[in-house]
Amino acid sequence: MKARIAYLSIAMALLSMLIAGKTYAQAMSLCVKNSPERRGELGCSIIENKSLPDGLEERLYWHIDKFDSLDAARAAVGPASVAFDADGISWLITIETQTVDHHGGIHVTQVGPLQLPRAEKYSMQINSSRFTPGMYSLAHVHSGVEAFYVIEGELCLETPTQAMTLRKGETLAIPTGIPMRVVVTGSTPRHVLAIIVHDATQPPTTRMEEGKGPQLVPCK
């Protein structure tokens, strides 16, 4: 009888842990314009959707610079760049063939060269998101390359072939059409900048229903 009670106690403890784990994890909110992230809360903000100029060359980079003020960053905006504030910093992000010119700002990093899909016209969507550990996105694909820059915290990207972890200051680009799911890992809130450079005739993101889609390698 004592052994049976002990087994039941262990089973109940394990069940409680599983329930607690399921309660802790929750889906991220979708990216929208002027989300609560713009006010320092949790959310994913679509900073801007912008058409890119014609005649883009093959070796393109996502170039990130920072400025002392948003006015200074806005003064440097060109046909393939966007200026905005995030995490108390004024950013200028640009799609370009070289990263030597910092447009009057301070160089932060670059990602690339980017593997763009074949298209007659391209657009870029810039997102800024802030979420807490345990939160995750629905599985989805993009009609173009998606690149990430981690401002704070840690994230894990699940894909059909591997799970990849990114930490503060790190970058990554995922090619067109790769199914993925984003999970916030680590122990602190995660703030990330992301850009999707995609076929302008297609929506940038297509989401899959919860529990559907290809099998993804889980984050550890």
Q: What features would you describe in this structure?
A:
This protein is mainly β. Helices cover 13% and strands 43% of the residues. The chain is built from two helices and 16 strands. The protein has helices at 2-24, 70-75, and strands at 26-27, 43-51, 61-67, 81-86, 89-96, 106-111, 122-131, 135-136, 140-142, 144-152, 154-158, 163-167, 171-174, 181-185, 190-199, 205-207. It has a five-stranded antiparallel sheet with strand order 2-7-15-10-13, with no helix packed on it. Strands 4-5-3-6 form a four-stranded antiparallel sheet. Strands 12-11-14 form a three-stranded antiparallel sheet, with no helix packed on it. Strand 4 (81-86) and strand 5 (89-96) form a beta hairpin. The protein is globular, with a radius of gyration of 20 Å. The model is unreliable at 2-24 (pLDDT under 50).
